[in-house]
Design brief:
With about 290 residues, the protein is an alpha/beta fold. The protein is built from nine helices and 15 strands. Helix content is about 40%, strand content about 20%. Helix 6 packs antiparallel against helix 7.
């Protein structure tokens, strides 16, 4: 995993908080995502110490490393939340809440955080359901809601104007720390994921706001990255299908091959437990879309 120092960077009107392992975005009084529980505590400390007003919290999707910090961030004061309509349905499922809680506890234990054993996930179960194309006003511009499914069914991206920054959640893959490999992040649908990538490419983007590892800055670099991400997805799908067939669909065999050929070979910084949870979902998506299982 990458270094854990909490940092801040500003690009135009957008304040980016976190570290290479996890980024969240502050647009005026709007916070986009809350990171894990580990980062949520630090975000709360930062906004309090620097008098950063947070009156709305938007979520890109319902995964533990994007919502876990809400346990702490919810204490920022009076605020509303916004997300895809399905997001709130997911947050009301006890099984999902317990999974998010356990994943965050694993990270807190890994980092020797004092809250590891007493962390309790408090889900945002009420808020504004956001529709594709909806515009959310803020003091200097607007934030456009862009539905980008494929990573999850409730994945949305946020196009921040006037800065032309697109916060994509994990709709555009995650690069390794060296920038030599992009790990595709389709968990529910390969087709939807590729279509979402192509939709993102239609926007005029100055900064691509990824959730992990790095930001992509400049129109040319953004276009290049998105093109590379689409190509990487197609190669990865081919690799998973080939591996699935060679292993006869047997999970332990698939896991061993993918861990060696993808996780270790490309020096991925994602925690192994999170990588494997995602891989299981990816295999299920491959089964549904290519093998009708």
């Amino acid at each position: 995993m990458r270094p854990f120092e909490f940092g801040q960077e500003r690009y135009g009107n957008v304040l980016i908080l976190g570290a290479p392992y996890a980024y969240v975005y502050v647009v005026g009084d709007v916070l986009i995502d809350t990171g894990t529980g580990y980062w949520g505590k630090r975000i709360l400390e930062f906004v309090r110490e620097n008098d950063v007003p947070i009156r709305r919290v938007l979520f890109t999707h319902s995964h533990y490393d994007h919502v876990g910090g809400y346990t702490y961030v919810r204490e920022v004061g009076e605020h509303t939340t916004g997300a895809h309509p399905r997001f709130y349905e997911v947050m009301r499922k006890e099984k999902v809440v317990r999974f998010i809680e356990e994943m965050n506890r694993k990270e807190l234990r890994l980092l020797n955080d004092e809250d590891a054993d007493r962390y309790t996930f408090v889900p945002p179960v009420e808020g504004q359901p956001l529709e594709d194309g909806q515009r959310i006003g803020w003091e200097k511009g607007e934030i456009e809601v862009v539905y980008t499914p494929g990573h999850t069914r409730d994945s949305v991206s946020y196009y921040v104007l006037p800065d032309k920054l697109m916060v994509v959640g994990e709709a555009a893959g995650v690069p390794n720390s060296k920038g030599t490999y992009i790990l595709p992040q389709f968990l529910t649908s390969v087709v939807d994921y590729l279509n979402s990538l192509r939709r993102i490419r239609e926007y005029d983007i100055e900064i691509l706001g990824l959730p992990h590892e790095m930001l992509i800055i400049g129109r040319k670099e953004v276009k290049r990255y998105l093109s590379l991400s689409e190509a990487a997805t197609k190669r990865y799908v081919d690799f998973l299908r080939r591996t699935y067939e060679e292993c006869g669909g047997e999970w332990e065999c698939i896991k061993e091959k993918v861990m060696e050929e993808v996780y270790r070979r490309n020096e991925l910084d994602q925690p192994e437990y999170a990588f494997l949870a995602n891989l299981q979902a990816q295999i299920r998506a491959i089964e549904r879309e290519f093998y009708a299982i």
